[in-house]
Amino acid sequence: MDKNRKILISILSLFILCLIVGMFDISLQVKNSNAVNDTLKKTHGIPSLRLRPGIGIVRVEGVIDMGSNQFRIKSGAEAIIARIDDLISDTDSIKAIVVRINSPGGTVAATQEIYQKLLQARKKDIPLVASMGDIAASGGYYVASACNIIYASNGTMTGSIGVIAYSPNMKKLFDNIGIKMDVIKSGKYKDIMSSWREMSDDEKRLLSEMIDSNYQCFLNDVSAGRNIPIADIAPYADGRIMSGDIAKSYRLVDEIGGFEESIQKAKELAGLSSDAPIYEENINPFYQMLINFEGAFKGNIFEKTASPDFYKFEYRYVQ
What we know:
It is a single chain. The protein is globular and about 70 Å long. It has two domains: 1-35; 37-164 and 229-316, 2-enoyl-CoA Hydratase, Chain A, domain 1, CATH 3.90.226. It has helices at 2-33, 76-88, 108-123, 139-144, 171-177, 201-226, 230-233, 244-249, 259-270, 285-298, 301-306, and strands at 54-61, 94-103, 105-107, 128-137, 149-152, 157-159, 164-165, 241-243, 255-256, 278-279, 313-316. The longest helix is centred in the N-terminal third of the chain and has 32 residues, at 2-33. It is built from eleven helices and eleven strands. The chain is α/β, with parallel strands linked by helices. 45% of the residues lie in helices and 16% in strands. The strands form two sheets. Strands 1, 2, 4, 5, 6, 8, 9 and 10 form an eight-stranded mixed sheet that branches. Strands 3-11-7 form a three-stranded antiparallel sheet.
């Protein structure tokens, strides 16, 4: 009992300490935002200033999904979309946008929503420059294709144009340890992709239709964003991964260069001077701490392996 009490007290003490640190960080950032011109308007709870025309930065990092948490704080694709909305609504200060991507892709719907939001910015004649980091594959490339110009380093991992869905087949394991699932369902496809049984041929055909439909959307959107006929993209849209220089030879990338080069290109397209300000996103550290805390307490091994993540359709490079 005493041991459990000590553990509980330790956890509560750590939580209180993090709250104090988070509040201290907030006060510092609010104070600093009054003295600098490279922060953003209120999107995550911290006010900031844009004093003259410059470049807005959108960051797409990690696996792309809608994001969810118990605190109703926007995260994942919803946070990225809110960030783009914030930038394109401030046409007095934001003259171009650099989309920095370091992502293997993610869920189909989340990726498509980011793509469509970037197209909205492009239709408003706001220059968009994609800057690929270590990886911008599958859904990461999908997002990049919405931009006017794409930069990648020679060593960037990109491509992987395609769709994937997967689930573990644990039937033999269940049989060996004597586990049998009793299922009552309203239709024959209700437990499709269940891990405790083999998939039927009808189910495989049904899922293949969905895969093909999402794949065609991928091709259509890349073709539209890049202004390249589908026939010229299709030979390389077989899921293959490629380096930045190879992607450039296939016209999937425009220029070889890093983040700094993409920023300079954005300034050039917007007609800005080389010393024009760069507006990064200013995220409230207290909100980020809450999300991290939730992930730490939710992320046990069983929940991760038993979660619906196995059954998502994804534009994603899977290693």
